[in-house]
Amino acid sequence: MNMKSPNAKSQPKTAVSSGKKSGNSPENTLKIIPLGGLGEIGKNTMAICYGDDIMLVDAGLAFPTEEMLGVDLVLPDLSFLIENQTKVRGLAITHGHEDHIGGIPFILKEITIPTIYGPALALGLLEGKLREWGLEERTSLCKVRPRQQVKIGCFTVQFIRCTHSIADSFSLIIRTPVGTLIHTGDFKFDFTPVDGELFDIASISAAAEEGILLLMSDSTNTEREGYTPSERTVWRKLNEVFANARQRIVVTTFASNVHRIRQVLQAAMKYDRKVAILGRSMMNLANIARELGYMTFPDGLLLSVDQINQLPPDRVVILTTGSQGEPLSALTRIANDEHKQLKIFPGDTVIISATPIPGNERSVANTINALFLRGADVIYGKEAGVHVSGHACREEQKLMINICRPKFFMPIHGEYRMLVSHTELAAECGVPPENSFIMENGDVLELTADSGGVTGRVKAGVILIDSSRAWQVNEQIIQERRHLAEDGLVTVALTLATQRSKIVALDVSLKGLILPSSLSSEELVTRIKAELSKILLDRTAVSKLNKDDLQSFLQGCLNGFFSSRIRALPFIQVIVHEVAGEEQAKKTKNARPSASIPKSGPS
């Protein structure tokens, strides 16, 4: 399934930073192939190839947009990895967010990855996923420490501490036979991190002294001026809210935001409140982070929902998922008064400690409106100070480019406009525009020590997952669902007499179809019957068609009828039943033929 962006690239196919031609053969060029994460937010997956060696950087997933009806998760197309699975030497994880590790179980269902290297927290979260899927035997997990180097095929990868919204995050220095690469991962320059783990700028600077061939840098906040505030600034506002709240406090944030969860638990302990955590993913993260030492709290702090409901409101904190307005999340169900165990009461304080992911703004706004409607005091938005981004703004991105001073530049992790803006920023910092590459998923960037260019494509796109049924959803099914939701369904069950000379019975079912005020459903059925009778009079058009072809032919005719007469394009299915002889026709006249929705949409 190839869902290529229609945007044209803004750089030439080949860029050369010196007048010399490289003597390297195509087999000795380094290939950078993003399979996900470019031109979008989510499913970050990068393949780096040299000769017969492929290493992966991250393997994430994304969440569906509103039009992906019935889809739970979105993954990158895995065709390239399946075709080249014997060359995959390992996977390096930058951090434990779902858009960087959530796709790993799905990849392991298809191929074996010899070793997955990553920070302890990310591997702790991943280990539980692999155990749940029964995939422990498909790979080996190897925890790495800051500044540790590992060999992945012909590549030497050094893990460098960086600061982000989740603990234990890394940037990567990747030394290849062609030159040194920097993959920033998700980052910001937080000089007062809540866990005291500072960005290891010294190691990046040391690599820059050797020379950086290519910088691949996080583009998420490239449209925001200035600097991203420190995580520590959130504590002051949380402390203020907790001090002033007189009833229950409900806090929602990303399930993987260890720093924020840690701060909420610290505030709860300071103000003598007990905490109930809603959401399996958030509870798993809290437990794993505690086991690994990324947060500490006493045994009696966390209670079940039933226990928390027995306490006075001013001693309660509810920490929940749902910061993106997800329809089935705990916060959304609480806001809509659909949660079995919890309700919002006037005077409750709700803190939304997250920024909507692009595309989720309407869902988040609906949740906030519902909370206000129930009398809650909702604290949200940038001005409230209860959330800061985990991604670098423009001045920090400039700092990264100037520290690295790369020969070539490739913006990653962002929608297309963000990649374009980041490339313009690199030009301001001295990277020649012809040495920057705005890539799309599936593009192949080939590099030698002194040249680089986008030289081709591999198959790229998306895999749609419905986790409650068969795991992969065909895109045509999504199109059919969208068609049904937008225009409705018309089912025509038609019984024809011998040689298709007469309509014996006609049954029309209308579902979700909006008719003009001047036309009743009974009148529409009459018109459909007249239309079909006129079509069947043309003996040369229908007499030689088999039943399947006749159904498709009539379906196409009705499409034209609805388009011209009703100005609608409903999903149309036609079921034809043929009977022989007058006696059989009489028996069938009042029968209602059974119908089933066909797999394909209207022709």
Task: Please give a handful of descriptors for the protein shown.
single chain; 603 residues; alpha/beta; Metallo-beta-lactamase, Chain A; Rossmann fold; Ubiquitin-like (UB roll); nine-stranded mixed sheet; 18 helices; 26 strands; 23% strand; disordered N terminus; disordered C terminus
Notes on the structure:
The chain has 603 residues and is an alpha/beta fold. The protein folds into three domains: 29-226 and 389-462, Metallo-beta-lactamase, Chain A (4-Layer Sandwich), CATH 3.60.15; 232-384, Metallo-hydrolase/oxidoreductase (Rossmann fold, 3-Layer(aba) Sandwich); 475-588, Ubiquitin-like (UB roll), CATH 3.10.20. The chain is built from 18 helices and 26 strands. A nine-stranded mixed sheet has the order 1-21-20-2-3-4-6-7-8. A hairpin with an 8-residue loop joins β2 (30-36) and β3. α6 (232-244) runs parallel beside α7 and α15 crosses α17 (547-566). Mean pLDDT is 85; it is low at 1-25 and 591-603.
